[in-house]
Structures are given as structure tokens and as C-alpha cells.
Amino acid sequence: MIKSNQRFFNFILVLFDMCVVTASLLFAWYIRFVSPFFDDGVRTMNLRAYIDLLAIIIPLYLILFVFFGLYQPYRKQRFFKECREIVFANIIGITILMSALFTMKSIHFSRYMLGIFFITSTMMMILERGSIRKILRMARERGFNIKYIIIVGAGSIGQTFAAKVAGDRQLGYKVTGYVDDYYHKSDKDGIPILGKTREMNEILEEYQVDEVIIALPNTSYKRIDEVIDICEYQGIKTQIIPDYFHLIQGTTAYFDELDGIPLINTRYIPLDQPLNKWIKRFIDIILSILIMILVSPIMLVTAILVKMTSPGPIIYKQIRVGMGRKEFWIYKFRSMRCDAAIPGEIGWTTENDPRKTKFGAFIRKTSIDELPQFFNVLKGDMSIVGPRPERPHYVTQFQHEIPKYMIKHHVRPGITGWAQVQGWRGDTSIHKRIECDIEYIEKWTLWFDVKVFFMTFKAVFESGY
């Protein structure tokens, strides 16, 4: 019954989404070619051509919405997350659409109109989903669309789950009571104890519930099996809260599978997801090519001046540790004298380091010396945004001194990073840097990358980043 209701609800959502996409396109066409907002004399674009375009747009967008999880149950998905996925899906959708039109040389379609369509469809989709959530919340507050649950286990795990449910009414859950072998029939924080696990069959027959949440310790596997058997006999869905859930790090539990064997990742890393990894890599490549084209005159002048002001190679190479603890050569414009490094000496570069040339001090202060690292990005050694890579010597040292230091090697290192734009760069607190790196790794989103990218410019101009 629950699955049937969910399928019907998703069917209604699909119809709404199709209407939103269609209305957005028609609205964009009206604004571009009929309204007085664009007084450029263009009034000959055929509406039929844009209506025919819906045969491509609607299936494309629906596939993207499914891919981004926009048809998952609302009870377990926050609205902010849904808005973020709507924006991402629309960005990818309009990008694919414009790329397809460009490839097919369909140049008669208005770019202004497609831009208006993107903005309108994104805003209307968010408004649509927000309105649906508001309606569902109002219904649940009035006792409609509520799922009644029994929690097996009144210990700390069960109490934590019950508190979550009670604290967020929009989830639409109501706890009927606990089932526990170690408490007498009474109340536990206002929730009744219905009986013991051996009475489970009678309890389920007495109380009409939709789901049973099992919150027992792993050592009670025999009782867990019995409860599941009884619930399945009664046709009631069961879900298990692992008693080691507190060990799962990050913002979201991440479950995997190996040939039918479930695996729980103890730390959720968004960039472990293939789609996220592909999107970030794609943007890195495109953005690196564009930046290198734009700054090629600066790089050429810098290369000439490095050669003129100090004898030696233009590019300085150094071994760093990257993703998966693999070593790679990082590229920079040389900013120090070739005879500056003393064999065996390892140390941080300070602001007034005597090893730097005068021109080297300038390119380090303005971060121009970092520009060759875009070649590292194209090679796949680095990303534009990510934790800064360290030399093997420091990695070995910090691995023993700082807990969780090696987590930074789960993702590609970056030219710039969250720690660096926060001011933790060079000879500063390594502990603070790692805190920022782990925060970035666990909370990564495209918006986070965009934020760090633009904060980098601010840091460069304000503090000589």
C-alpha cells in the first residue's frame, strides 16, 4: 500500500514537473518575442519550433530529475537539499540542450529565450516543490498522511530516533510506542512501553502501524531476527538502526554493496559518488583550459622575466603527495635561486625568505608562481579547488602527529582550498588547516567550490595570498 501511494505521488509529481517545464518555455517565448521587454525587432521566431523542442526537453529533464533523486520520498529529504538538486539538474539540462543545439547547428533558437527558460524553470520548480511540501506539512499537522511506527528498543538508540521524529513534524512520523524486554509497561519520556519482543505478534495485531524501527544492539541479533520474522508475517515493513551509527562520520550515511553484501562507509565523502566526481573533473578541465588561455600572456611574460632575473630553469618541480597517497610532480614558476636549497634542508618558505629572488617574491605574493599548476589539473594530478598537497616528508611527519591528517588524500589536492582562503597557508597552524580540509571534503558541493574559487581572488588582492 505504501509503495503504491508513493508511485501515485511520483506520477503526480512527474505531471506537475512536465507542466512546469512546458509553462516555463512558453513564458520565456512570450517574454522574448511578444512582450515589450526586448525591443529589438525580432518577432519572426516560430512558436511551433519551440513547442517541438519540448519533445527533447521534457524527457531530458525528467531523466535528470530521477538521476538527482528528485522523486525520492519527501519525508527523508530536506528542502534545501532538494532545491540544490533542482538547480544542478537545471544547469546540466540547459547545458546539454544548448550543446545539442550547437552541435546540430540549430542557431535560430534564441539564447536569450533559453536563458529566460533556465531561470524560470528553476524558480518555478523550487516554488512547485516548496508548495507541495507546505501542503503536505499542513496535512500532517492535521493528522493526514501520517506514518505510525513502533520502535523496538527503548535504549539510547531508540530514544535518539524518537527525539528526532518528535522534533521534526514535517517528517510525518508518529511513535505509537516502544517494545523492550528490559522495561516494564509504563512510559518512557512520554512514549508508552507496549510490551516485550516475545509479545510482538500480539502488539502488531492490537496497534495499526506502518513501520517498525529496530533499535537494538548488534549483540541482540537473535531477537532482531525474531522481530523481523514477525513483522514480515504481519506484512509490516522493518528498518534497522545500527548501534554503531555514531561511528559514521560526515553529514550523510553512505551505504554501498558488494555482490549483495551491504557495506556501510564510516565517512561520507560526496566526491566518492561517480556523478559528483565526473562533474568536478569536467569543470576542472574546461575551466583550466579557459584560464590558461586568458592568462597565457601573463605566463609568457613571467617565464621571460624568471629567466632574465635569475639563472636556472623557468619551471620548478617538486614531489607532492596527492589523491590515494600517490606522489606526483607539482609545477611552479621558479621563485628562488637555484643554489638556495641546502642539501637535506627542509623548511617552510617564510615571507622574508632570503632564498627568494626579487621577482620571485613578487610572483609568490601575487600567486602567479602557481599558474603552471593548471597543467597539473589537466594531467589529473590536481583539482582547481581542494586541500593543498604537501611534500612526502611532511606527510610522514603529520601522519603521526595529527589525527585524521591522511583523510585529505581521499580527494585530489587543489591549487586553492578552503583552508587557504581562511588564512591557513604557509607557516600557520597545520591543525586548523586539516580541520578546514576535512570540512571541505565532507561538505563538498559545486557551490562550495564556487565560493572558494571567488574567495581566492579576494584573498589574493587583500592579503597577498
TrEMBL record:
Keyword Amino-acid biosynthesis: no
SUPFAM superfamilies to which the protein is assigned, alphabetical: NAD(P)-binding Rossmann-fold domains
Similarity comment: Belongs to the bacterial sugar transferase family.
Record domain Bacterial sugar transferase: where: 280-461
Catalytic activity, EC: 2.7.8.31
PANTHER family, sorted: COLANIC BIOSYNTHESIS UDP-GLUCOSE LIPID CARRIER TRANSFERASE (PTHR30576), UNDECAPRENYL-PHOSPHATE N-ACETYLGALACTOSAMINYL 1-PHOSPHATE TRANSFERASE-RELATED (PTHR30576:SF0)
Protein name: Undecaprenyl-phosphate glucose phosphotransferase
Protein's membrane topology: Multi-pass membrane protein
Keywords, sorted A to Z: Membrane, Transferase, Transmembrane, Transmembrane helix
Keyword NAD: no
Class in the EC hierarchy, top level: transferase
Residue ranges of the TM segments: 12-31, 51-71, 83-103, 109-127, 285-306
Subcellular location: Membrane
GO molecular function annotations of the record: undecaprenyl-phosphate glucose phosphotransferase activity
